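Backbones bend. Shown next:

***
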Amino acid sequence: MSSLFQFGPFTLDSRARRLSRAGTTIPLQPRVFDTLHLLLRNNDRVVGKEELLDTVWKGRVVTDNALARVISALRRALEDSPRESRYIRAIPRVGYRFVGDVTATEAATGEPASLTALAVLPFTPLQGGGADQALEYGLADTLSSRLSNLRGLVVRPFNHGLPAEAAVSPMDTGRRLGADYCLCGSVQRSRDQIRVTATLMAIRDGSSLWSASFDQRLADIFEVQDAICERILREIAPRLRKRIPHAAETNVEAYRAFLEGRLFLGRHTPGDTRLALERFEAALDADPAYAPAWAGIADCHDSLGTLGEDPQTHFEAARRAAARALALDPDLPEALCVLAKVAWQYEWDWAKAERLFEQALQSYPNRADLHIAYSDFCCYMRYGDRAIEHAEKAMAVDPVSPWVSSLMAQACYMHDRNEEAIEHARRTLELAPGFPFAHFFHGMALMRRGEADAAIEEIERAAASGRGDFFAVLGNWYALTGRRAEAEQILAAMQAAETPAPPIAFVGLHLGLGNLDEAREAFRRSIDAHDWHILILHADPLMIEAARGTDLPELLEPLNLPEDRA
């Protein structure tokens, strides 16, 4: 069966699950890719809607609207038009047909010529050895970060928010991630000694391209990382060898604390973020010049600032830490990302934020964290098409990240693609049961669909994570659905809390309870406190509806928010 399909300037490689144009990868969501592949394989006939739905959605019940959205995304990727169809032609009430000239061939057995996708899996404990999760995930996380800075590689890290058993079969996980190669291995620590084994495997045929073991002092872990990275590039991307960044070296105590901080930070809960902050600070106690730890500090303070708890303190700390990290390492993408987020979440300088995001993405086009942060920004600016485009790019790099797929659900929910939002949220919860952001956006999308009881159950699950903003939204929906006593209980709890809730938390609650004067006052306090959540009244469809008929939207005018655009 053919695995390479060439049409116009495009090439689809079904084995690598990659669409490229003149050697540059065009990110596609999995179902968009599968739809194109099905149409290309059957370009001699019309593919009916039922066949598309059965094949691409694998028997799941979805509406025709879901298929229409996928076709629309496919046309955007191919720069096609329904009026002047060069590639995808709709056959009314029947289905779709690929109408471009297609050349189908078998992929060569040698090295792929376009961008290469590498899955970096968590290292596992050696049999009989004690587990050390911070070191196991941290080594993979560090290698992923360094290799993802190379333009010729798309690195697909295995997110530690997923169930551990998903990593049992490296080949299956690599295929699931749509990778060409996977890096896996094991690690064991005994006091100040470590043993690391690493294996690079080709997903296509399961062959082992390279394997090595390292028995060294933990203090020499950076030399081990350099050796692994160099060998990976020697095997799969020799033209890029000279561009590999060297490890940011530090002492053992700092590195260990840094790895623990990264592990906590990836869980995206307030409690874990505070634990991450403690570990990054411990890393800096051991090495004040360790740039990655400064970037971790910046990331933690930005995350805590987004909760609205004393945003001035946290965002100022985030900005200082990011600047310190960049002074030590001017090319650190995590620090660049934090500066962009501070610009929009605290400084409210929309043009500066957009400029910083675009600058970072120009240097690091294959970083999922940068794409999803920019998508988040675009959601609140109401740049609908751009928000979804960058969420799709993030998913193309890191397709099983709960964080990425949850914010993909957010982008769809906020921009009139509600059924897709529900689908992405459910998919996230299949990957990572209990992930709070997936429950939240699932609930919001269900509420927009009119399923209030099911929506509130999802918001309750999200609020159980301890986020005050989720708790406040729960109170808002209690009030709006007639459960006034429960809403008033949440209001009283927020007012009596030892840590004051951000002012914006009270806006929705008072709106739901009909307390317009109190909602207006809370709104003004939100503006004074620079609580970025105030933008939900600009961007969130349900909050826009709740505020309709009041003067609250007019209070946003001094913020000089940009007009809607793609």
